[in-house]
Design brief:
It is built from eleven helices and 13 strands. By secondary structure, the protein is an alpha/beta fold.
Length: about 375
């Protein structure tokens, strides 16, 4: 077969006609953001907001058409209403009522967001080590890389290749270190920029939850992008988050953004399970001298200020960084070591917080809209 290209994808999609208009989806300018990675394809279908429920069948038809191309192993299409199209709404009932959609992640007991107010504080490293630590405590754990713009979990898990399709036409999460893992990074080149606007991010996240066969999990750890934007709001509004873990370094400038993250989750009624002070100190591997490069204790003080748990300190440690880069996170590589013990202690506190929250406040039943 010839190599798969963007032109091949568009040529195939030109065979799909809009159900209510006498043209194909390519001629109508509905296809954007085509990404081809090996035998994996992704793209967006731009629609009018009121068409979302009506055009789910069109989305699936587009996916099926691309999967039918010889050699294609997976295809993910997302609906986005970012760019209004020049079309006349139906004369009758122009804004139909929203139809109930499938419940996202119905077999996941707890969904935990790992977040930070700013980048560069070690959030993804914390997320993956926390997830592996939870498996060592007997939990069935999934890891969702929701950092659409900078997916790093594929590199940190050591996973390569692509997720396989299931008989139902969904994607099966990949497996590493006892975790079920999904990331947009499996579907795009590692150095490819993700130039996606808000609605495309929202749709991609919903599909990585609803169109992936996660199975029964005790905890799904979600590595959120830094900040307080579309991804955070999508997670808070589309699934019943059990709580959020905030990661920060101890200096004032990082804590300013950590406070924003705490306040954001408070506004959407997501409990804060606690704060982690990452890169809390550095201990010289030669002489053992301890240096507090980024100050020390700021995250503990912040936790006390907001009345939330302080989960612990993680050192600025060369081995943690090196093992993350190699795809063997420190908890997996050295499960009996000091750093793995620190992450397990944090995981134990998180589990206690999840159990307490489940008793005090039943999780709402939130569905995809």
């Amino acid at each position: 077969m010839t190599s798969l290209t963007k032109e091949t994808v568009l040529h195939s999609l030109a065979e799909i006609r809009h159900p209510h208009r006498n043209q194909d989806v390519v001629s109508l300018g509905m296809i954007s953001g085509v990404v081809v990675k090996g035998t994996n394809v992704g793209f967006a279908i731009e629609i009018e907001p009121h068409e979302a429920s009506k055009l789910e069948g069109l989305r699936r038809s587009c996916e099926e058409r691309i999967r039918a191309i010889p050699g294609v192993t997976s295809c993910t299409a997302v609906l986005t209403a970012e760019h209004p199209m020049q079309m006349t709404p139906p004369a009758a009932n122009p804004r139909p009522p929203k139809q109930p959609q499938k419940v996202l992640l119905p077999d996941v007991a707890h969904i935990v967001a790992v977040a930070s107010g700013k980048g560069g504080v070690g959030k993804s490293t914390t997320a993956i080590n926390l997830a592996i630590a939870l498996t060592t405590l007997g939990s069935r754990v999934g890891l969702l890389d929701a950092d659409i713009y900078g997916p790093s979990i594929p590199r940190m898990t050591g996973l390569k290749g692509k997720p396989e399709s299931t008989p139902r036409g969904n994607l099966a999460p990949m497996q590493a270190h006892g975790l079920s893992v999904m990331s947009i990074g499996f579907l795009v080149e590692e150095d490819a920029p993700m130039i996606w606007r808000g609605p495309m991010v929202q749709s991609a996240l919903q599909q990585m939850m609803g169109d992936v066969e996660w199975g029964a999990l005790d905890v799904l750890v979600v590595d959120l992008p830094p900040g307080t934007g579309d991804a955070q709001l999508t997670m808070a509004q589309r699934v019943p988050l059990s709580g959020a873990v905030i990661v920060s370094t101890p200096q004032d400038i990082a804590l300013l953004d950590a406070r924003k993250a705490i306040n954001m989750f408070g506004k959407v009624n997501v409990p804060i399970l606690g704060l982690i002070e990452n890169m809390s100190f550095f201990r010289c591997p030669n002489c053992g001298h301890r240096t507090e490069i980024f100050s020390h204790g700021g995250a503990r003080d912040c936790a006390e200020q907001f009345g939330v748990p302080f989960l612990g300190e993680i050192a600025l440690e060369l081995a943690i960084r090196e093992n993350s880069d190699r795809g063997t996170p420190i908890v997996a590589q050295d499960p009996n070591g000091e750093h793995a013990a620190n992450y397990r202690n944090i995981a134990e506190i998180v589990l206690r917080g999840l159990n307490a929250e489940a008793v005090s406040k039943p999780l709402p039943r939130i569905v995809e809209v």
